[in-house]
Amino acid sequence: MVAPLILAMVYILPPFQAPDEAAHFYRAVQISHGQFRPAIAPPTYRQGAGGSVDTAAYQLVDRYCGMPNWNCARQDRPTLAALAAGSPPGPLQTVSFSNTVVYLPIAHVVPAVGIAIARAAGLNPLAWLYAGRVAAALFAIAMSWLALRLLRDHSASALVFAVAALPMVSSISPTLCADSGVVSCSLLLFALCATLLEGSPFGWQLGLALVVAVFYASAAKLAYLPLALLPLGCAISGRRSRTVVITTALVALCAIGTTLLWSSAIREYVFPISQDLKVDPEGQLVYIRGHPIAFALTIGKSMIVQAPFAAITLIGRKLSDLRVLLPWAVVAMSAVTLAAGAITSGSRRVRLPLHLFAFVIVAGCAAATFLFLYVQNSAVGSTRVEAYQGRYLIPLLPFLAFVVPPVRPLESIRVAARSWVGFGGTLATISVALFLAVRTWG
Predict the structure, then answer these.
(1) H/E element holding 131?
(2) Is the pLDDT of residue 47 over 70?
(3) What is the pairing mode between strands 324-325 and 48-54?
(4) Model pTM score
(5) What is the pLDDT of residue 411?
(6) Mind listing the pLDDT tens digit for each residue in 101-145?
(7) Which of 14, 82, 167, 248 satisfies CB 3.0 to 4.6 Å to 316 for a cystine?
(8) Quick one: DSSP state of residue 271?
């Protein structure tokens, strides 16, 4: 029931209505041409990094969003005739999209394939956008389904479904946002970790799935890189064979090495993504090195103070480029659904060392998301982290199953909780699809 609704939202959401989708569109278009490295773009409000995209694609974004493409107020949907219209190949121009160009290319390769197919068919840039959305939605659905298939009756399968059915997740899965692939592959990565821990057969097919999941869920965005170590920890804790342990170690090393090499190659292209001219990443790093205690207190305070807001935005109170407010009833239902999945997700197979290891990994990744926003979006020496969104924590949610201990009194309600998660998650997705169709249609 959820999958067709996710695909329907490919069209329900107007162009560029997902967070930063215009910038993700630029990056996917660039990759569809076989170009991966950033380039210095002409300054708009400040100099930034970007890459070569079709002039027609730039003009499309400009019509819907204006400059510098951060907020796209236009919310009309194209007709089928407009999507089917042809478009001759045009020249390329260098455009700035510094907040997405620095991601590992794998984060946008799936929608880039859809865009390349649409361009080869002679369609126009508007059709490229929707072809990329369809590709991203199919990939997200496939990875989420595979995660649930692997987990079957595992205690954490309800948590995985609850995460996949969050309003924020169901609204970004059918878009070009890198979070579409990152979140769905984080679900798959957790399922593979659980498989390693449980002792189930782990053949070459699952090994290939592990490579995809690790590179998407951990290497695509630097803040999640520590997640690459969790399969190794689960293989060791599950007392798997030497071959399996070595395989997980090699996959982790490859992901970490690739990320570090990419980071070194693009270091000169990392620019601030904020329009606030007080933001100066190099100056912020100097401040952090000179005031480590004040920096640590700022990160800690921000994590505590922003926790309620982060929880609400994690679930999806603000959708469609963060301007459409979802009814509180749907938010509350999704919160209860997520809580039901989380509190019953603990497993007795998770021993104390793995509990502690997973806690360190999850907490470290959460702190890293605050760190990067502090460097790239906050004024030098600021006493708070600016522009933080709860969706940055969604890829970490499945791994709470390794952190939450099994609670005996809750085991008796596990079946009822699973039933509620299935019902609540499906109803939430139906509600989101209907609400967005009615709210933004026009």
Answers:
(1) helix 125-151
(2) no
(3) unpaired
(4) 0.94
(5) 65
(6) 889 999 999 999 999 999 999 999 999 999 999 999 999 999 999
(7) 167
(8) -
